[in-house]
Every structure is written in structure tokens, then in C-alpha cells.
């Protein structure tokens, strides 16, 4: 499995994550101090076996007053730090739809220029400093959306849309993970969130809204790349995958329109490199057993596999 960028709630990269980290730290330190105090009292009690103890004071003080004070303080503290989860998005928020599948992520944006839907997979790009309002759902079983460095975690339920608002305060790439056991390849259901400066994000989204640069037949297209496109169609890869500008018959699998520009393949299973891309197409079941996509090595010749992989790598 690809190592990828770090995945840690201790590497907070947004206001929600900072808040959760602060609250977690306060709870951990407070719990440690209370535990240490109880142990100290236990030691003192064992050393003073002949001393007198008033049970009423211990019951009232330790069993009623102290827990009440601590719980009330924690209630107001947590309310003060509650993240801005709202039923509707703020006016300047970026809306991103994410659907969990067994075992990959479908990501949807709205192109601001045309209003058309832009579909990608397994990778989410967001602008730095702008709230992102996620609409989260599932196409099959219960999944859970969790990017620890950005904070928050939300279950993704079939037939229902959940919401989660996050924000990145600096550029970077952070790894997320499905946090609800969802089947055989739950551990290989990762995603990556790439935060970019607003100008870079706008340029990326505008490019994603277009068909892949090499998707359509073109006189300038190298012949080997063109043969890869022909092999992709001849072997019916388009029965499951959409490549805008080439085939849009099915959306059973991830949209591959710009697959060559993504960081990883198979929801974080392997890095997106030419050799790994060819291996992924040929030996999918060996790399990710149980995935819906069969291994192609037994039904597609080696030459065509290499052509298909080379063509997919051009889709940026």
C-alpha cells in the first residue's frame, strides 16, 4: 500500500482540526491529573491505616460535588469550542459532493463558469482559507468520511445526505480514510485532500471541467496513444468507466477523464506512476482483492495493456 502523506489528528491544518486537537489535549491532561490525584489519595489512605475518615464528606465531595463541577465545566467548555457545523452552507463556501463506494470515493464539484457537474475520484482539491461544505452519501454500505488533519468525521449512509464543514489554513496534502468498517478492502479505502491557493484551485477546476486533453481523436495525437484509446474501447473498459470526450456510457467505476493527474490509484492503494498504472490494470485483484474491477492480464494481451496504461497516463 502507498505510504502517502501523513495521516494524523496531531498535525492540525485547519480551524476545526485545531479546535478538536485543543479539546482533546485538555481532556487528556485533565483526565491524567484526575487519575493521578485519585492514585495519590489511595497511597495516602494506605499509609494512614489508623486515621479516621468521615465517609459523608468523601461521598458528598468526591461522589457528588467534584463530578458535578467537572461535568458542568466540560459542558460549557465544549459548547464554547463547538465547530461551526451548520444545516446550510455559508455564502462563500465551496460545495463538494462525496459518495462512498466499495471501495472508492466519487467526488463532485459544480463548474462556476457553466454550472456543469465535474466528477473526479479518490482525490479532493480545495482552496486554502475558504470553507468547504461537504455533502456526504453512500451508494452501498455505511462508510465514514474522515481526514484527521482537517478535523471532523461523519458517517456516510445509503439514501441520506450528511453534511460536514471543513477548511484548510495552508497548502498541503493530507490523507483521509474510511473510518467505518465497510468490507474486505476497508483498509484500502483512502483518499487524499490537496489544499491549494485559490488561484491554483480555480485553474484546476476549470481544467477538470474540460474533456481530457488527449481524449478526442486528434491529428497531433501520437499513434501509440491513439492505439491506447482504441484498445480501451475495444476491450470495453468504457462499460464501467467514463472518459469525457470519449465515452460516457457508464458510471459504475471511477471517472477516468483526468486520471493521469491524480496522485494515487485504487483509493490510495498505489502511487500513480506509469509502471504502477500498468500493473493496476493488469493485476487489480492481486493489488486489491475484492474490488469490482477484474484483473485484465488474463483477457487482454500484454501489448494492449501497455497501450491502455500509456493512454490513461496521458489523461491530464
Automatic annotation (TrEMBL):
Residues 91-207 form the Cytochrome oxidase subunit II copper A binding domain. Residues 223-316 form the Cytochrome c domain. It comes from the Bacteria. Keywords: Copper, Electron transport, Heme, Iron, Membrane, Metal-binding, Transmembrane, Transmembrane helix, Transport. One of its GO terms (biological process) is ATP synthesis coupled electron transport. The keyword Transmembrane helix applies. GO terms for cellular component: membrane; periplasmic space. It is found in: Membrane; Periplasm. Belongs to the cytochrome c oxidase subunit 2 family. This is C-type cytochrome. It comes from Variovorax paradoxus.
Amino acid at each position: 500500500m502507498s505510504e502517502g502523506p501523513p495521516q494524523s489528528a496531531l498535525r492540525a491544518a485547519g480551524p476545526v482540526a485545531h479546535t478538536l486537537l485543543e479539546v482533546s489535549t485538555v481532556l487528556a491532561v485533565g483526565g491524567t491529573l484526575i487519575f493521578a490525584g485519585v492514585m495519590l489519595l489511595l497511597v495516602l489512605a494506605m499509609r494512614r491505616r489508623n486515621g479516621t475518615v468521615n465517609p459523608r464528606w468523601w461521598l458528598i465531595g468526591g461522589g457528588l460535588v467534584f463530578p458535578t463541577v467537572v461535568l458542568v465545566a466540560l459542558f460549557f467548555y465544549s459548547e464554547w469550542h463547538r465547530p461551526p457545523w451548520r444545516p446550510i452552507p455559508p455564502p462563500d463556501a465551496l460545495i463538494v459532493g462525496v459518495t462512498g463506494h466499495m471501495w472508492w470515493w466519487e467526488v463532485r464539484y459544480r463548474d462556476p463558469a457553466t454550472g456543469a457537474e465535474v466528477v473526479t475520484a479518490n482525490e479532493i482539491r480545495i482552496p486554502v482559507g475558504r470553507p468547504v461544505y461537504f455533502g456526504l452519501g453512500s451508494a452501498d454500505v455505511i462508510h465514514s468520511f474522515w481526514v484527521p488533519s482537517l478535523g471532523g468525521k461523519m458517517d456516510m449512509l445509503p439514501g441520506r445526505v450528511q453534511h460536514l464543514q471543513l477548511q484548510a489554513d495552508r497548502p498541503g496534502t493530507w490523507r483521509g480514510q474510511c473510518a467505518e468498517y465497510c468490507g474486505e478492502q476497508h483498509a484500502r479505502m483512502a483518499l487524499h485532500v490537496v489544499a491549494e491557493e485559490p488561484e491554483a484551485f480555480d485553474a484546476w477546476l476549470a481544467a477538470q471541467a474540460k474533456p481530457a486533453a488527449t481524449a478526442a481523436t486528434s491529428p497531433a495525437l501520437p499513434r501509440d496513444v491513439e492505439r491506447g484509446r482504441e484498445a480501451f474501447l475495444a476491450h470495453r473498459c468504457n462499460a464501467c468507466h467514463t472518459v469525457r470526450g470519449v465515452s460516457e456510457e457508464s458510471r459504475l467505476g471511477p471517472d477516468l477523464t483526468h486520471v493521469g493527474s491524480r496522485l494515487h490509484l485504487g483509493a490510495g492503494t498505489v502511487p500513480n506512476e506509469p509502471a504502477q498504472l500498468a500493473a493496476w490494470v493488469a493485476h487489480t485483484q492481486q493489488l486489491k482483492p475484492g474490488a469490482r474491477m477484474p484483473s485484465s492480464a488474463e483477457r487482454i494481451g500484454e501489448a494492449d495493456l501497455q497501450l491502455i496504461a500509456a493512454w490513461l497516463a496521458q489523461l491530464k
